[in-house]
Amino acid sequence: MRKPKKIVFSGAPGSGKTSVICELEKRGFHVDHEVIRDHTASLLNDKEGVFENPLEALDDPIPFNETLLNVRMNRFQAQNNEVTFFDRGMVDVLAYMDHFNQKYPRHFEDTCSKYKYDQLFYFEPWESIYAPDPTRLETFKSVLQIDKALKNAYSCFGYEINIVPQTTVKERADFILKELLD
């Protein structure tokens, strides 16, 4: 039996990752949907104010990020399908914390080093499709800064950054599948 492939999608908020994940799921592939939207909605339900990131609503971001990192790690460990596509990965947690100049314990890095995805597909900022919503709080200017933090974090963990072209959802899914087969 072949080793299962764990493919992570990362990139700027609102760049089309989830649409492509859903397209791949429609085609019969196993996917692991993003978890932060539920955590963000739950967090913001109890807070008043306007935030550009849910972490701004916290006195201490470590427990929120620890939970997010652990959920992603547990989901990573639980997958044994031939191929699983993950909507964001463990490295994203560190990238966002770096973006917001938040310190994290060493075990965050250790987790990202120990549990490595087999391949990364990266979605760059795409202003014409970007739209904020109740759990996507960033301005497009912030999206560009987050993009840099994400690319830097994945590079630091040794990932090759495979850029997904900005085209239709179907063509993006086709591109990813072709890359996996080559």
Could you describe the 3D structure shown?
This protein has seven helices and five strands; from the N terminus they run βαβααβααβαβα. A five-stranded parallel β-sheet has the order 2-3-1-4-5. The protein is globular. It is of the alpha/beta class.
Fraction of helical residues: 40-55%
Q: With helices defined by DSSP (H or I, 4 residues minimum), what is the helix count?
A: 7
Let me know the largest β-sheet. Answer: 5 strands, parallel
Which descriptor suits the 3D outline?
A: globular
Strand order of the largest sheet: 2-3-1-4-5
Number of strands: 5
> Any low-confidence stretches, pLDDT <50, length ≥5?
none
Query: Distance between termini?
Result: 20 Å
- The string of secondary-structure elements, in order, is EHEHHEHHEHEH
Task: Please state roughly what percent of the residues sit in beta strands, choosing from under 5%, 5-15%, 15-25%, 25-35%, 35-45% or over 45%.
Answer: 5-15%
Structural class by SSE content:
alpha/beta
Mean pLDDT, to the nearest integer, reads 87
From the alpha carbons, calculate the radius of gyration and give it in angstroms: 16 Å
Features:
182 residues, single chain, alpha/beta, 48% helix
Q: What does the secondary structure layout of this molecule look like, with pairings?
A:
Blueprint lengths: L4 E7 L5 H10 L3 E3 L3 H10 L15 H18 L4 E5 L2 H10 L6 H9 L4 E5 L16 H17 L5 E2 L5 H13 L1
Parallel strand pairs: 1-3, 1-4, 2-3, 4-5
In short:
It is built from seven helices and five strands. The chain has helices at 17-26, 36-45, 61-78, 90-99, 106-114, 140-156, 169-181; strands spanning 5-11, 30-32, 83-87, 119-123, 162-163.
